[in-house]
Sequence to fold (119 residues):
Amino acid sequence: MTTGESNEFQQLRNALEQSRRNTFRYPSALRAQVADYLKRQLARGEKLAPLAYGLGLAYKSALAWLDEYQKAPAFVPVTLRESAPVAATASLSLVFPNGARIDGLSLLDIAALCREVGS
Fold:
């Protein structure tokens, strides 16, 4: 943990402690800050339980805050490439970034779906 991360950890710990003394519920902005900090630490390979405990936070609260402030990308990058023409009767699959998949579509089906979703 770097000095900056250590300072951020201590500031969050202090803010959580202060908030516990003053209110029944943690402020939304503080929950978002803690969730952001936890996400960055988890991405570095840290474990959630010791982080939550160190912040003076219940493990279940940390999990709930991570879920509550999960940022889904508004746009997903798309790369277009030239390929051979596809017959309108070919069976295609549409695969979403989350892994969901729709099989057996025609090119016209996919075009219609894109028009519907885009409007």
Observations:
- The two ends are 46 Å apart (CA to CA).
- The longest helix spans residues 3-22.
- DSSP finds five helices and two strands in the chain.
